[in-house]
Amino acid sequence: MPQHLLITGANGFIGRHVVRAALARPETRIRLVRHHGAVTAPDGDRVRVTRADLGDTASLDGLCRGVDTVVHCASRISGDEAALRAVNEEGTAALVADALRHGVRRIVYVSTAAVYGRGPFRGAEPHELPVRPRSATSTTRAAAERSVLAAGGTVLRPHLVYGTGDRWAIPGLALLIRHLGAPVADSGVHSAVEVSALAEAAVGAALADPDRDLAGAHHVNHPSPVSGGVLTEAVAGLLGADGAAAPLDPEQARARLQEHPQALHHLDMLTSDHWFASTSIWRLLGLDPGPEPARGLARHLPWYRAQLGSPMYAGR
Prior knowledge:
The protein is α/β, with parallel strands linked by helices. It contains 11 helices and 13 strands.
């Protein structure tokens, strides 16, 4: 029997991969939600595209009518606190309420491990960590999580998400290296997941047998963490850096970045452990967690080379 799946944020970085994963399931009928921009969808009766705005809760009324499951990938990550609250907190609450009114059996929200705040974290399970967000973005996404969890939904918390379409994780490290002109010593260890594996987990959770208990929060990363040194070495290679500069200790690096808050943010992340236990969700869903991060990055070299050669990174 066909499963009717609604995907929000269908034209975003993660959402595009979730759409691809859902289309690979022939039993699905898919409703793609977009706010702005184009959504590429194949012709045929499996896919319907509809417009709605999480910042306008009235536009969400009836969105989930006829839907079995929801994968919620849409989040606002920039803007002032009022705009963030309107989309992430109030918009998600309205989406969840509409889903409950229309008998949706499972809601999956793709959130972020940033709801825990700054590390260090080493091998922790979700139930072992308090939610202590430090930014307005993470605070409002934590509020979105509460709405989903209160409805018995599934929350997925990746840390670093990389792959084609990534404009934050690896490009952010590139920005850091450009500003510093040298690697950083004493980097931490980090959880990461290839975006296609994350998408498979989101769709797998949404379409899993209704009797399977997936309620609650789950870390969704490759089980093996990657060192900051390996990450920065990979990024330096993409940038064509020769590796001759002596490594900086974190305090030296911090002193160089006082005028560059975005790069400083990436430095603080890089030098603190952010390793989250991420085995259970793959076992529950019977899915492959994708490649180890150091190997997985190689699959997306064309994307990153194009990104890192853009004016945003060139000449820094």
